[in-house]
Amino acid sequence: MATVTVETATKELHQQIGLTTDGSQFLTFNLGDELYGVDILRVQEIKGYTVVTKIPNTPSHIKGVLNLRGTIVPIVELRTKFGMPTIDYTAFTVIIVVVVRDKVMGLVVDSVSDVLNIEKKDMQQSPQFGASVDVSFLNGIGKSGDKLVALLDMDGLLCEGDLQEAAAGAAV
Amino acid sequence: MSNDFAQFQDAFFEEAAEHLAVVEEGLLELEQHPEDRDLLNKIFRSAHSIKGASGMFGFSAVAQFTHKMETLLDLLRNGQKVVTPQIADLLLKSTDCLKTLIDAAKTGASVDNETVQRLAAELAAASALNAPPAGQSADPAKAAAVMSIDHAHVYTIHWTPPEWLFQRGLDPLQIFKELGALGTLSEVKVDDSRLPDVADMDPERCYLSWSMRVRTGKDRQVVEAVFEFVREDSVLTIEEVRGEASGVKGEGHRSSAPPYASPLTSEGSEDEPKPLGEILVESGVVSREALDGALAQQKRVGEILIEQHAASPQQVEQALQKQRKMEAAAQSKKTDTASIRVDTDKIDKLINLVGELVITQSMLSDLGARFEMSQMPVLLERVAQLERNTREIQERVMSIRMLPIGTAFARFPRLVRDLSAKAGKKIQLVLSGEETELDKTVIESINDPLTHLVRNSADHGLEAPEERLDNNKPELGTIRLNAFHAGGSICITVEDDGRGLNRNKILAKAIKQGLISENDKLPDDQIWSLIFKPGFSTAEKITDISGRGVGMDVVKRNIETLGGTVSIKTTEGRGTVFTLKLPLTLAIIEGMTIRVGQETYIVPLLSILESIQPKAGMIKTVVEKGELINVRGTYLPVVRMYEVFSLQPEITDPTQAILLILETEGEQVAVMVDEILGQQQVVIKSMEQNFRKVEGIAGATILGDGTVGFILDVRGLLQIARQATQVAA
Q: Is-above-0.90 flag for pTM?
């Protein structure tokens, strides 16, 4: 019986301090005027932008590779991946290092914004725009206060394109 | 067994495996040189070590079986018996049996007791001096009889050990084991009446006493000697029971396992269930040929699903890939836990070097604490010393992982011997280049592919003796295993002088399976590589050695995961050569750093023949075939690296640039770069770990300034360049 009380107490406490209980936490970042979110459990670290080494003959959104404490980590330029115009990097430009299917990758974004708790009820399916807008890399849309966050599906975003290329590359 | 024991057990299993290898290798050699006493001694020592250690760990089934082998070996060693092919064969079979026993002890799996006992009896029969001349098949019943004749005396023993027994680290179990070794131990009873309540019990005190019965051929003194160390303060009575010894002849070997052993061995285990086909053949419903024929028609689940349109070929292929990945993952887990044995010599040197490194480091920090510009030369000198130390340590550490490939070859003499017996062919195996060293992980991973290739050569490659004689070939077929260094790689060849690959058969089969269409004109190389397709086998009859078409694809895949290649050379009627080309080590290469525009690349030093700065006139352009350079009379194709990798170069005029003459798989090519920066050792980092394979790049490395540099894959570079010219043409 004691455990139940503890659980209830923890839940109440979480609600008081604003920790979500049935949703999850997202790290949000800016690309242009839009706000995107990634599941915080996927994020390994955030680091400032440093010069990368270009990989020859790869799609333009693969910015290059970086030495992250001895491992080689590919860096994806999210702006190019989403077909947005590139901008000059500023002091706010960061690399979000994420883990996707045991692979470590870096995402270049304009700036990081916040860590948000989004309850399940505040999440909805990504809307269908028809063929003109590709929403396959979205997990859904989240609402936090008056902010709308596009929640990215990391597996869909990074594996779909790049791993298929990998399979094709291996077949050659 | 308690958990503390587990680590010692692991060591035991590892050692046992080594000893077994020695025994097996020795026995094979013994077949060739039956008179070699030293060899026999070696085998005996290894067998003895297994027996001793297994007894210590309580694997009594192993100990007992090894003891029987040892008895026979001892007789051979003393010259009381002569090594005949039959005895050698029996010993080899026993080694196999011992292997399964040890495996069973390790995994707790069940053992085929019948085989164990049959072999044990055969060994006993062969060891009996008055037994019929070895060679006639031993009769288990007779063997058992021979054993029980020896058991002339029966003693009943009552033993109350002193209370300090455990305090002095003595183990009563050991006593029983020794008694068991003397003969047959039975009716072991423990008297625990003196055992106090748990609260009053001192765990270091012995409260037990035993009574037992021993049937042995040995004298009373021998039995008493067993208790030698515990005699003091013991209450021991040994009585001989008369009139019982002769009446027990038929008891046989079953009872020879002492009762206390039963919880440790897995006796009475059920036979493994057999496949349906085997049962049908055994009961005579169908013939072996009919079964094999039916099995040949059997399709894989994937093929059936595709035929029924339940799944598309792509879906099946995807599922298969997934399966392979899971298999590979399981495999990698398996190899990861292995340990390595290193010469103490190597370690001593390493420790010395680390000592030097520490000294250099303290000298440097001492210098840094109060540094003045005037001490610059001293600083440079010490940094140079540090560099020497580091490099040497690196080399030594690498050499720890290097093993001679002979360790991988060692199992093949036995394999070929068995294969030749099974297939009814005469085969000799020739090994060479065993001393070639390569990385331990590589050695472990090539074991299976090599085994498969050797089996393949023995089964498909070599013809039956009659066919060979008809074709004017020696009756004795040869399989050659060779290993050698070539460039930055190690090459392993598996060569047979058999019938070679049949071009038409492969083509017909490939067309039937829909791999190629009838109109395709394929060069030989591509035809041979068809045999690496999954499910491809041209064998007319499936044997239990090979022929199910599973395997060659696995061979290729395993080698490719290691970053190697498999190639085939074959001449019909003359034989086939499979060449495995593997990277020497998976970690470090010597490289030349070069620059193209802003980018730094590393070219493996081993592929560089020379570097030149061409003069005007050396470069010729051939219409639509690109540029050629005349190097001392030979024309080599020129590849501009910036074109292939779409880089921004600093120099586009070849006479201003540097041309590296590179060699890959016998081909030479001149690669144009801006500048050579220097030579250094680089640690190869995987690109695939977080990304994927990039054409033309063998891997990545971290450069001196912390940025990433790419290691050039010369072959890949050439392929990209070729594709580009083809598109242009």
A: no
Residue B698 with chain A: CB contacts under 8 Å? none
Query: CB-side exposure of B271: number of CA atoms within 13 Å?
Result: 6
User: Quick check: B693 and A105 CB within 8 A?
Assistant: no
| Order of strands, sheet of B153-160, starting from the edge strand that comes earlier in the sequence | B183-191, B209-216, B153-160, B235-241
The DSSP code sequence of B351-390 is: HHHHHHHHHHHHHHHHHHHT--GGGHHHHHHHHHHHHHHH
Across the interface, whether the CB atoms of A55 and B685 are under 8 A apart is answered no
Do B585 and B438 touch, CB atoms closer than 8 A? yes
The full set of domain ranges for chain A reads 28-171
Q: pLDDT tens for residues B73-111?
A: 888 888 787 888 788 888 888 888 888 888 888 877 777
CATH topology assigned to domain A28-171: OB fold (Dihydrolipoamide Acetyltransferase, E2P) (2.40.50)
* Neighboring chain A residues of B645 at a CB cutoff of 8 Å: 56-57
- Choose the closest CB to A56 out of B646, B693, B700: B646
Chain A residues with CB under 8 Å of a chain B CB are: 51-58, 64-67, 70-74, 103-105, 162-163, 165-166, 169-170, 172
For testing the chain A interface, which of B694, B701, B722, B727 should be mutated: the one with the most A CBs within 10 Å?
A: B694
Block residue for tokens 């292997």: B99
Mention every residue, 6+ apart, whose C-beta is less than 8 A from residue A32.
A79, A84, A110
| Token pair 């179990």 in the structure block, residue | B173
B625 and B716 belong to one structural domain:
yes
Are B673 and B656 within 8 A, CB to CB?
no
Domain count, chain B: 5
Domain final residue, candidates B137, B172, B203: B137
The complex's ipTM works out to 0.76
SS3 of residue B265 by DSSP: coil
